[in-house]
Amino acid sequence: MDSKNIYIAYMHFSNNIEWKMHRETEWMYLGVGKEFREVEAVELVNSFFSENDIFFITDRHNSFMIGKSEAILKVKEYIAENDPVLANKDFSKMIEYNKIGVVRKGQRSL
């Protein structure tokens, strides 16, 4: 699947995601830059996705399949200026990062 179609699929399926609550909100803080909690971020990705390959999504021109083990390095690289998203192959599970250092995870009802 090319970058444009990955992004279009993400936009379509993201409307059906039920975001999991973390305390009183769906967002939890992971930090940005030097404050980025890499260990927690890796644990989140590893515990949430069972697949080894997931989609890394930022926009129509920069979305692609990536190994789960490489995903957090890409998130760290892009999070300062983008809101990267990780999704499984059928877009039923997603983790959305925001450039202010928060993240949320969810899945759609099948």
What are the main properties of this structure?
single chain, 110 residues, alpha+beta, seven-stranded antiparallel beta sheet, 3 helices, globular
| N-to-C span | 22 Å
Quaternary organization: single chain
Q: List how many beta strands DSSP finds.
A: 7
Number of domains: 1
Question: Which segments are poorly predicted (pLDDT under 50) over 5 or more consecutive residues?
Answer: none
How much of the sequence lies in strands comes to 25-35%
Radius of gyration: 13 Å
Mean model confidence by pLDDT? 94
Q: What is the overall silhouette?
A: globular
Order of helices and strands: HEEHEEHEEE
Main sheet makeup: 7 strands, antiparallel
What structural class results from the helix and strand content? Answer: alpha+beta
Helix content: 25-40%
Number of helices: 3
Tell me what the structure shows.
With 110 residues, the chain is α+β, with helices and mostly antiparallel strands. The chain has one domain. It has helices at residues 3-14, 38-48, 68-78; strands at 17-19, 28-29, 53-57, 63-67, 85-87, 93-97, 102-108. Strands 1, 2, 3, 4, 5, 6 and 7 form a seven-stranded antiparallel sheet that branches. β5 (85-87) and β6 (93-97) form a beta hairpin.
Give a brief description.
The protein has 110 residues and is of the alpha+beta class.
Write the layout of secondary structure elements.
Blueprint: H1 3-14, E1 17-19, E2 28-29, H2 38-48, E3 53-57, E4 63-67, H3 68-78, E5 85-87, E6 93-97, E7 102-108
